[in-house]
Amino acid sequence: MRSGPRYLRRIVPYPYTRADAEEYIARCVLDQRSTRFGIEYEGHVVGGIELHIDLDKRRAELGYGLAVRCWGGGLLPEAAAAVVHYGFSELGLEKVFAFTDVRNSRSQRVLEKLRFQREGVLRRHEIGRDGKRIEHVYFGLLREEWESRQPG
Ligand SMILES: CC(C)(COP(=O)(O)OP(=O)(O)OC[C@H]1O[C@@H](n2cnc3c(N)ncnc32)[C@H](O)[C@@H]1OP(=O)(O)O)[C@@H](O)C(=O)NCCC(=O)NCCS
Q: What is the model's pTM?
C-alpha cells in the first residue's frame, strides 16, 4: 500500500504491515465508543469510516481513509454520506463533525461535498510527525442541515 502525502504518515504507519493491521483491529474491538465501517470495492476492503460517538452530547466525530489507488473516484463521499445518514437517522445525533489537517485539501473537499460547514481553523492544534505544530480545520454538519437535504 502506498502511503499518500507525508503529513498522513503520522496517522497511518508506513510501510503498513500485517502486525499494524492486527493491532488496528484489536483497538477497534476494544473501543466501545466508536462505530467503524469498512468500504468494500471489487471484493476488497479499500477503506474505512468511523464515527466516534458521544451519545450524552448527541454528537460524533467522523474519520475516514481510502487506499491511494481508489482516490479521485468519489468512493469516500458516497460511503461517508451513508454513515452520516446512519448517525442522524439511527443514532439520533444532533451534530457530526470532523477535523482535517489544513493542508489536506482532498479531505476538506469530501466534507464540502457532504455539505459540512467550515466552522473555523484551530491554530497550532496538533503535533505533526516532524514535531512541528500544525493547524486543523474544523467542519460540522447539524441535524437540521442534514434533514433539509433529505428527499420528501
Ligand atoms: C480524503 C479521501 C478520503 C478522499 O476520498 P476520495 O474518494 O478520493 O474523494 P473524491 O474522489 O471525492 O475526491 C475528493 C477531492 O480530492 C481531490 N483529488 C482526488 N483525486 C485527486 C488526484 N489524483 N490528484 C489531485 N487531487 C485529487 C479533488 O479535489 C477531489 O475533489 P473533486 O471531486 O471536486 O475534484 C482520500 O484522499 C484519503 O483517504 N486520504 C487519506 C486519508 C485522509 O486524508 N483522511 C481524512 C483525515 S481527516
A: 0.88
Give per-residue pLDDT as tens, 125-143. Answer: 999 878 899 999 999 999 9
Which numbered atom of ligand 1 lies nearest the CA of 66? 39
Return the CATH architecture of domain 6-147: 3-Layer(aba) Sandwich (3.40)
Q: Which residues of the chain have pLDDT under 50?
A: 1, 3
3 with 97: CB under 8 angstroms?
no
Of the residues 106, 125, 135, 137, which should be mutated to test ligand 1's pocket, given the most ligand atoms within 8 Å of the CB? 106
Atom of ligand 1 nearest to the CA of 12: 42
For residue 125, which phi and psi values (nearest 5 degrees)?
-85, -30
Output the residue whose Cα is nearest ligand 1's atom 19.
72
Check residue 110 and give its pLDDT.
Answer: 98
β pairing state of 95-101 and 44-54:
unpaired
Sequence spans of domains, the chain:
6-147
Identify the pLDDT of residue 1: 42
Burial label, 132 (beta-carbon count in 10 A; 0-12, 13-18, 19+): exposed
